[in-house]
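Hi team, as promised in this morning's meeting, here are the two structures we talked about. I've kept the exact order from the run log so nobody has to guess. The first one is mostly here for context; it's the second one we should focus on when we meet again. Sequence first, then the predicted structure tokens.
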Amino acid sequence: MATGNQEWQVESIILGIHGLNNKPPQAQIEDWWRAAITEGLQKNCQIVNPEFHFELVYWADLLYKYSLHDDTDFSFDPLYNSQPYRPAQSGAIKEYKDGWLDSLQRGSFDVLGKTADSLRLRFEIEILSDVLLSRLLRDLHFYYDGDRFINNRQGQSELARLALRRELNAAIRRHASKQMMVVAHSMGSIVAYDALRDLGQRDPDLEVPYFVTIGAPLGLPYVKTKIIQERGYDPRVRTPSLVTERWVNFADKRDTIAVDAHLADDYGANRLGVQVEDDLIANDFMLRDGQPNYHKSYGYLRAPEFSRLVKEFLSR
């Protein structure tokens, strides 16, 4: 048990990339991600004062003119952030225990996923998918819109999905000399997957030892179809070549965004034999009103299974 500061390798860094919808300013959400990871290391790994290098790859300001705020005097404002980071209640953080139902549900999702993929590719239900996505996952629809251009950091108009990928590409290149763990939440997992594939084709010497996806919609037939269409894969998507050691996918079965919690049957191994490993967790995050949010990044970032993986990475 650590009784003081844990000494990690200084050349290691955790790069986070956030998910759907508008966010607080970068410095605020970066502090909250760091706080959630720290809370997990303290409570799950008994490390009193964990120190690690962390940077959040931020793209919300490319899609939203104004960020969310936490001023309770203006709680009626649509830009009021009703879901700030909050430390877990005593005893709330628990390890997920797999049961026989998990195997049954995994098989059911595999069958449903293959059926949905077949229908999607056979009948080309593009219009229906676009309508649903525009209502339920606006940012995801925005990302895949082939006519949607935004200004990147250089002030140049660029296809939205390319501008978002550029943010992670730049961070990875900036920290190329360090050991990296990329942690991607929600739609950030799609941005990260695409960015890593792009970098692997352009700069095969770059390496990302650990790729971690949390609350990821990468198993959705629509998403896999878009990846196949853009990259010409046939018939299966696979682990980005830059990922040299592990890709771990954490999902809560109650998370509606990560409805297909098992990606191992959807994504093949890369040339190094690295294939996604699925791990179910229990997301403990509770809103101010006491209602659970099983998709919230903070609950994933302090789950025992995630904390042990972070400790493993930093202790290499």
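And here is the second protein, the one for discussion:
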Amino acid sequence: MVNDQIVNKKVLLGMSGGIDSTVSAMLLKEQGYDVVGVTFRTFDSIKESCLAKEKGCCSIESIMEAKLNAERMGIEHHIVDFRDTFRRCVIQNFIDEYMSGHTPNPCVLCNHHIKWGEMLRLADEWGCDFIATGHYARIRERDGHLFLATAADTHKDQTYFLWMLTDEQLRRTIFPLGDYTKEQVRDIARQHGYEALTQKRESQEICFIPDNDYRAFLRANMPDYKERVCAGAYVDAQGKVLGQHQGYANYTIGQRKGLGIALGQPAYVTHIDPTTNRVTLGTYDDLLATELHYRLAGRPLAIASCSEASSPLFARIRYRSRAVPVKSQITNEQSQISSLIFSEPIWGITPGQSVVLYQDDLVIGGGIIQ
């Protein structure tokens, strides 16, 4: 049903060629918005994907599919080349983080720099009132401020990847799918004659990493890879040498498979030291902890305003992990490093990943784990 208040309101919609952004376009049109579609080219599929077949949300195939879907719906559509910006802001950070012994989450930076930073700039340039994406998230108001809120479909909720969005950005953002489940979205696509989209496999991989093989990506995109990533020592918690690894950047915290060493019991990567090229191995229990440190970022005012509320604070340290109750938090304002103390041990705290703070269904802050 068309809402008279939004007739002639113009919204810039990020279109990937997939079912979520396509159904978002349908819903926005039905609500009365003047929809303009935009699809970003963010990397060269052949070069950046190490000669693997093109796929993912930013491949040439997906870009053309987005264009065809837009034309079918009678939507103005643009293809914008952001490869230089994407390489500088997302890919280079991805490489730098691994070379620092961390495990990055590039989707968080892509949302911050590209899907909101660049989309809002284009929206202003093209006279659009709002921007929209096919993310599963909602927006709520509390005490005059806007917050991200978890989606109706908790299994698809994507607020973990969106925690860096600000109040100002949210005021110009629409999440058409926030109140829908994935199955409802599939039903809408079927009803509009897009059965093929409902059968399309959803990629769970990083868009610019083919076959989820980040090691091959680093080798192909770092001219000095062989000099910087070389064999080093596996050690235990006491520093005793256990064997030889193939270069610290090839390992992530919590990794168990592919270590190439037999110790008579399951071994996990518990620490990575890029300065000494040492990888520490330990047991599953060695990865349990009740405290983490993170660099404060994202809505610090929201954290302060909500800290006195009666509702408990929860934190999620990875996309699929359970939100864990926070017992207390300590913030060093000078260093911008905060500490979280959890009510129970959590497993596999990983530097470079995001920690996202929730109160009720609201995202009130977050940061990068140190």
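Starting points for discussion:
DSSP finds eleven helices and 17 strands in the chain.
The longest helix spans residues 106-125.
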